[in-house]
Amino acid sequence: MMLPDSPQNIVVVRAPSPSVHYIPSSMSGDNIIIPTQNQQPVHSFGQPVSESWCLTSVKVIKFSFNWTINNFSFCREEMGEALKSSTFSANLNDKLKWCLRLNPKGLDEESKDYLSLYLLLIAAPNSKCETRAKFKFSILNAK
């Protein structure tokens, strides 16, 4: 029996034990003897096939926060000056604290003709852990 080196011809041997037996990449002869004990799955390229796997779940918390700025048209903040919302979190027990920062006349010279709005992480229980946020801003004009 001859198996060419090709991804279409993959030989897998399954057994409960973790020891490894390799099948050479080019096999010839009519009789191939493969031990039936102490085997790990392998394929025809001489590399073991892993039987272990892992599933990691990431906690996702969805929430919304509404910030109303009364009389916004009368804001007199200059470029670089900011308004800040109150601090908020997803729920009462959440240790991640956020706020919104709004620069009505931009943050710097480059953005002076634009309103700048930022989501800021104010507090996190473990500063070594990475915190990611996917967010969407909606600015509504109350007429």
TrEMBL record:
InterPro entries assigned to the protein according to its UniProt record, in alphabetical order: MATH/TRAF_dom, TRAF-like
Pfam families the record matches: MATH_2 (PF22486)
PROSITE patterns given in the database record: MATH (PS50144)
Domain MATH per the UniProt entry, residue ranges: 62-143
Alphabetized Gene3D superfamilies for the sequence: Apoptosis, Tumor Necrosis Factor Receptor Associated Protein 2, Chain A (2.60.210.10)
Protein name: MATH domain-containing protein
